[in-house]
Amino acid sequence: MGMVKATIDGSDVLVPEGTTILQAAKGAGIRIPTLCFHERLKPIGSCGLCIVEVAGKATPVGSCETPVTDGMTVTTRSDRLFSLRQDILKSILAHHPLDCPICDKAGECLLQDLVFEHGITGVEPPAPSPKFTAPYATTFLKSWPERCVLCLRCVKACTEIQGIGALSVAEEQDGQRIAYDQDKCVSCGECIQVCPTGALVEKKTELRWRTWEVDKKIRTTCPYCGVGCQQLLHVKDGRIVKVSGVEDAEPNRGRLCVKGRYGYDFIYSEDRLKTPLIRENGYFREASFEEAIDLVARRFKEIIAESGPDAIGAVSCARSINEDSYQMQKLFRAVIGTNNIDHCART
User: Fold this and answer.
1) How many other β-carbons are positioned within 10 Å of the β-carbon of residue 253?
2) Which neighbouring-strand residues pair with 280?
3) In order along the chain (347 residues), what is the average pLDDT of each group of 10 residues?
4) For a Cys-Cys bond, which of 72, 110, 154, 334 suits 191, CB 3.0-4.6 Å?
5) Boundaries of every domain in the chain
6) Which CATH topology does 3-77 take?
7) Under DSSP, is residue 336 helix (H, G, I), strand (E, B) or coil?
8) In whole angstroms, what is the distance from residue 75 CA to residue 60 CA?
9) DSSP-derived pairing of the beta strands 175-180 and 167-172
């Protein structure tokens, strides 16, 4: 692949052929405002905010879709571009509810950040219009159609990243709308993770919090299967209130399944066992770990002596780490002498 040389805001850049202006600018440390663009998606080009001026062209071009050509001179910031971006944002706000004080996305809303960055004030009272064919909700997510800006990130993520296709674009008489197929949706939450506004939000927990109240974000590995997806645990007052995927981490690159994103409430369940229980006379009683382990070892020996090692089997839990599963199979194969092992993720 050949290389092309261009100038962006006075800085020379050398990039491979096919590189977009947006990618080249980012590589040079130059930020171009975007709303619909997302690193994990193919360029969408729906918002128009990433426009730049190219020498020799009368009108600005979208930097997310325009490849760099040899000798190109690009301007990413000018009074003209600033004014055009203001106009685009004002046209979005004309149909967007100004409910930031109660919106779940307040504090991490990309639209909110862009409006502030471009100094937009004195907006006329908006006439919010729904951008979905109909509101929709699942056990874990809820839509706010009036907050949608039709960036189409959710549609692309559902198709390109998850391969589900539960969201699509419907062409209606008054313009585009987001259509939802509830039979296809698996509540993975990918649409929520990429949504730049509060159009798609989680309803997993009854706890209410603001984004700035999160004490810390802890990176960890999802415990549900052997893939090893990387997660961020959003913690407030010592409790997990949200889980998101780590965007730039392997192997999932931000993706999570429904269990990985929403299956954390068991941690705080009142039914969670906190001490071993031993059944006696039809009832359970609490016991120490030493007593419980001694009982299991004794019963294993009795069963093996009576019926042989293949009378015993073991099932490993996906919530255990991979090393625990390895040790389980090693114990049963090498010590007990049976291949009767299984794992709950297999089924």
Assistant:
1) 15
2) 283
3) 94 97 97 97 97 97 97 97 97 92 91 96 82 88 93 97 95 90 94 96 76 92 86 94 94 94 89 93 95 96 97 87 89 96 80
4) 154
5) 3-77, 208-272, 308-346
6) Ubiquitin-like (UB roll) (3.10.20)
7) helix
8) 10
9) antiparallel
Structure tokens at 105: 């996305």
CA distances from 12 to 7, 23, 31, 151 (A): 4, 14, 15, 31
Query: How far is it, in rounded angstroms, from Cα 334 to Cα 338?
Result: 8
* Distance (Å, whole) CA 244 – CA 60: 36
Name, in order, each residue with C-beta under 8 angstroms of 212's C-beta and a sequence gap of 6 or more: 107
CA 90 from centroid of its chain's CA atoms: 28
pTM for this structure? Answer: 0.84
| Strand duo 216-221 + 230-236: pairing | antiparallel
Copy the structure tokens of residue 288: 């120490």
List the structure tokens of 334. 């090498």
The pLDDT of residue 180 = 93
Q: Which residue's entry shows tokens 């929403």?
A: 262
Under the phi-then-psi rule, with left for phi > 0, alpha for psi from -120 to 50, and beta for the rest, what region is 165? left
Taking the C-alpha atoms of residue 228 and residue 252, their distance in angstroms, rounded to an integer, is 8
Architecture of domain 208-272: Single Sheet (2.20)
Phi-psi region of 48 (alpha: psi -120 to 50; beta: other; left: phi over 0): left
